[in-house]
Amino acid sequence: MGAKIRKPNAVGYVLVRANDSNEYSQKHRIPRGGISDLRFTFFVQPPVREEGTLFKADIAIIDQFGNEHWLKGLEFQYT
Fold it and tell me: Are 62 and 8 in contact (CB under 8 A)?
């Protein structure tokens, strides 16, 4: 699994919450037909915003089969 930002072009990694606990890891999988919480991190270089401002982007979550699931217009605090 992975994640990417459309603009600026950046690849990140995803942590999936375990079904039976609040533990997040790259090794956990979402069962067929299931849902889970995700945490994803991107390192964008060079910075595209001033620290403390909002960063808005389209994010793709990439599943274990390589399918991209796009989330549009997500806002992040740029730190």
Answer: no
**Separation CA 45–CA 35 (nearest Å):** 32
pLDDT in tens, 37-46: 988 888 888 8
Q: What is residue 66's DSSP assignment?
A: S
Quote the distance between the C-alpha of residue 28 and its chain's center: 15
**Spatial distance between the Cα atoms of 17 and 33, rounded to a whole number of angstroms:** 15
Identity of the highest mean pLDDT range in 43-47, 60-64, 72-76? 72-76
> Is residue 65 within 8 Å of residue 5, measured between CB atoms?
no
Taking phi first (over 0 means left), then psi (-120 to 50 degrees means alpha), and beta for anything else, what does residue 54 get? Answer: beta
